[in-house]
């Protein structure tokens, strides 16, 4: 069973003014995919705090998967992708493209997403939107590839097959 962490990025959530419904959607989806949610946190839209929490989840907690929710748009305080890029080793553009493509079927606003998917050490990091609907749609788009991606990131020598 792979271990995951959920990091919700929200100024209002961090101040206690909004319930984290997106994190709950993600947790349910991961549990249904037989992934253990081993860590959860909520931070404001501050690049340094987001980057530090991703590093903690990967380097200290050794999580296989880190999913962020929130801060992926074009507003001035949307800095989650910037924080992720600061601490990543490699980017996986196809996953982010698949998420945007899936969301674009629902709303033209999907093209405003700056979400990234990336690797740090032996962990997969995925940025999801902050809305419960958007987070669920985006996670559903990449869920079928998560296990294989994590296995390959950890060095699985097997063929990638179809």
Secondary structure layout plus pairing:
Layout: E1 3-9, H1 11-14, H2 21-32, E2 36-43, H3 47-60, E3 65-69, H4 80-87, E4 90-91, H5 93-104, E5 117-120, E6 123-128, H6 132-153
Parallel strand pairs: 1-2, 1-3, 3-6
Antiparallel strand pairs: 4-5, 5-6
Helix pairs in contact: 2-6, 3-4, 5-6
Description:
A hairpin with a 2-residue loop joins strand 5 and strand 6. The longest helix has 22 residues, at 132-153. The chain is 44% helix and 20% strand. Helix 2 (21-32) crosses helix 6 (132-153). The chain has a six-stranded mixed β-sheet, with helices on both faces. It has six helices and six strands. With 162 residues, the protein is α/β, with parallel strands linked by helices.
| Number of continuous helical runs | 6
Gross morphology is: globular
- Binned, the helix content reads 40-55%
Q: End-to-end span in angstroms?
A: 22 Å
Assess the beta-strand content as a share of residues: 15-25%
Descriptive key words:
162 residues; alpha/beta; 20% strand
What is the structure about, briefly put?
The chain is an alpha/beta fold and 162 residues long.
């Amino acid at each position: 069973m792979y271990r995951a962490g959920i990091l919700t990025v929200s100024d209002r959530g961090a101040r206690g003014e909004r319930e984290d419904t997106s994190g709950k959607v993600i947790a349910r989806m991961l549990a249904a995919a037989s992934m253990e949610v081993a860590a959860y946190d909520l931070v404001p839209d501050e690049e340094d705090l987001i980057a530090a929490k991703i590093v903690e989840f990967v380097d200290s907690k050794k999580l296989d998967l880190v999913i962020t929710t929130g801060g992926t748009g074009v507003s001035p305080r949307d800095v989650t992708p910037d924080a992720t890029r600061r601490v990543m080793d490699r980017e996986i553009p196809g996953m982010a493209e698949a998420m945007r493509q899936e969301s674009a079927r629902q709303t033209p606003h999907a093209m405003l997403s700056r979400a990234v998917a990336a690797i740090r050490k032996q962990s997969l990091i995925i940025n999801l939107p902050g809305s419960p609907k958007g987070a669920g749609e985006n996670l559903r788009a990449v869920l079928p590839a998560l296990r294989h991606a994590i296995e390959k990131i950890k060095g699985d020598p097997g063929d990638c097959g179809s």
